[in-house]
Design a protein that fits this description.
This protein is mostly helical. The chain is built from 8 helices and no strands. Helices cover 76% and strands 0% of the residues. The relative contact order is 0.17.
């Protein structure tokens, strides 16, 4: 029997979410090249410069403290700061000069940010495994404790701001950098917990366990960044 009313294909929850996201983007995202879009791009660039300055301090202190304390997780945290700084440089590059309105700069920046996620995971996994296998002990690091506590407070502020701006700009590169800021904050909290556990209870193994947990998480976020799933919109290049 031929139905009198045309049948519609069933819509999945994912389809509904995608449609809602597209509608939200269309309603809130300014057109590329407009005064509002350029203002948001300047804010994104300014936040990246601010992040870059902080990360220079963060990486230097973390790596120095890690060498002194023999902490794999703290060393991984310092190296993560370097990778995170690379993402900030990429976003600054993307929103500078002629690339500001380039048709291909956003996609290139998005891919570069995604690659930056993949640079950290192998090193952390190998070093953490080695530390756990050999029983290397991380010593107490007051500098590491202070640094990771400060990072756990500052980085979420930067990360959430970049996620919001990335959504408004339809910039997966900006959103990916914001995700790295949040990842760094979670990493700081985890490393802080490991350092405190080692200091208070002698739980030296927690340092390596925390480091092992970081590696796959970084790979997942790299994959998300590569397909533009770092912001509330589809993050398709608009400039």
């Amino acid at each position: 029997m031929i139905p009198l009313v045309p049948q519609r294909s069933p819509r999945t929850a994912a389809d509904s979410r995608a449609s809602n996201d597209d509608a939200t983007c269309a309603a809130t995202a300014p057109a590329a090249g407009t005064a509002e879009w350029l203002r948001l791009a300047r804010i994104a660039r300014m936040l990246s410069w601010l992040t870059l300055g902080w990360l220079g301090i963060e990486a230097g202190v973390a790596i120095g403290a890690a060498v002194i304390a023999g902490s794999v997780a703290l060393l991984g945290f310092g190296l993560d700061s370097g990778i995170e700084a690379l993402a900030s440089i990429i976003v600054i590059w993307r929103f500078t000069g002629t690339r500001l309105v380039s048709a291909t700069s956003e996609r290139r920046a998005q891919r570069l940010v995604a690659v930056s996620f993949y640079l950290l995971a192998p090193y952390i996994a190998v070093e953490a495994t080695r530390a756990l296998a050999t029983g290397d002990h991380a010593e107490t690091s007051i500098a590491g404790i202070v640094l990771t506590a400060g990072t756990a407070i500052l980085e979420p502020i930067l990360g959430l701001a970049k996620l919001r701006i990335g959504a408004r700009l339809s910039s997966a590169a900006t959103a990916g950098e914001g995700t790295q800021n949040l990842l760094c904050a979670y990493l700081a909290a985890a490393v802080l917990a490991g350092l405190l556990a080692n200091t208070l209870f002698g739980a030296w193994w927690l340092d390596g366990v925390v480091a092992l947990a970081i590696a796959p998480w970084t790979l997942i976020e790299g994959r998300r960044a590569s397909v533009g799933r770092g912001c509330g919109c589809a993050c398709s290049p608009t400039a």
